[in-house]
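Notes taken during the Thursday session

The instructor put the following on the board and asked us to keep it in front of us for the whole hour. The protein is Methanogenesis marker 2 protein. We were told not to look anything up and to reason only from what is written here. First, the residues (328 in total):
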Amino acid sequence: MLLKLIEEIRNFEGIKRKSHIKIAMDILKNVQDFGKVVVGIGDDAAVLKSNGGYLLFSADGVLPALVREEPYAAGKASVMVNVNDIYAMGGRPVAMVNVVASKNIERISEILKGIAKGCEKFRVPMVGGHLHPDAEEDSLVVSIVGTAKRLLLSSNAKPGDKLIFAVDLKGRVGCKTVRSWDSTSCKSSEDVVQRLEILCDISEEKLCEAAKDVSMGGVLGTIAMLLESSGVGGDIFLDDIPKPAELTINEWLKAFMSYGFILSVNCNNTEKVLNKFQEKEITASIIGEVKEGKVVEMVCGEEREVLFDFNKEGITGSFRDGQSFRIG
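Then, after some discussion, the predicted structure tokens were revealed:
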């Protein structure tokens, strides 16, 4: 069973498509920093020094099939993924801009209605952008800026840390084009923002230094990318991963989540972190641990198999020759 699941995960397009990040890293490596950059290409957001704190920048392009088939959902998702990227870094969103491209005016309207709904839900303004009404292909890109007092970085996982999966299971299966779990549509804006603020609290109270949001790479892909970025390995305990009854474990491991985060936490702080989430009715469980080396293994009952060996291969290429994407 485990070997079959591993093969399925390794061939999952949500993970395989991350390999192209290496191209950007290689071509843009010499222009990432002219003095103020702390974190460059590779994390959930880029980080610049700013007035004793940090300025965060991120951008996400929405899957073309989702834009084409479910434009309203695509608009909502474009806001959600950017907001989650900022919170995953320990920051708070400030504002967004967008680029919408389509010849279909009705589709443009649905995309913008979805964006408006997302902005209302997450309480983050959409302050500008650009519209291509004559584009040959439909597309949607949103960029966001945020601020942070203290950072959660993908490159900060350390051997001995526990891997915590925090997820809102009080939701429903989401859009049809992409396998997803929607736990925001059924909640008030206040509840949604309060749950996201947990990440800021954890960061500012120095309970954690490493985190990443669960996006297109799924739960296992997200853990693997965090470990790769940190230059470490780890064990993932399949039986301990919480999931909703509506999805099988194979479906769940590849699902895109509106609220799902992986945190790498020192053993001394795990109970405090778990309690932070549970106080807001977020399911949080220890599902693995960080180890020396660069091998990621999955454990299920008595079975143990290699998921990724970063001595031989990479997902994003974000850790090379002992250097992660951290600059300052």
